[in-house]
Amino acid sequence: MVKRSAVQGFGDVQVFFRAAWAVWTGYPLYEVADHHGWTYHYPPTFALLMGPFANPLDGVAQPAWALSFPASVAVWYLISAAMMFAAVSMWARALE
Fold it and tell me: DSSP code of 39?
């Protein structure tokens, strides 16, 4: 999954990463699109928190403070897996 997202460009994480880039650089948040043409439709607070994962538009330099795209995808999926494990664990404890 990480390879398909980071190397081949599949998935929708690029929408979130481009929104993070937009909110931190002043680009119009709801006008930035990924390579599919998909745009961001969520609250700006989420994009603000995604700052370390910022991924610029093609032809624009990567911010020095942001992770590279493959590293961002790997960290994003690790965080997602950890949160899913925590949620299942909490649910299982609640059912005991």
Answer: B
Q: How far is CA 28 from the centre of its chain?
A: 17
Residue 19: partners with Cβ closer than 8 Å, 6 or more residues away: 29, 32, 40, 42, 46, 47, 50
> What pLDDT, in 10s, does the model give residues 7-57?
555 667 888 999 999 999 999 999 998 888 889 999 999 999 999 999 888
Task: Please list the alpha-helical segments (H only) found in 1-96.
Answer: 2-6, 13-25, 44-49, 69-95
Cross-strand pairs, 39: 33
CA dihedral of residues 77, 83, 89, 91 (deg, nearest 10):
-120
Residue 33 dihedral angles phi and psi, to the nearest 5°: -130, 155
Cβ burial of 88 (10 Å; 0-12, 13-18, 19+) is exposed
Query: Three-class SS of residue 33?
Result: strand
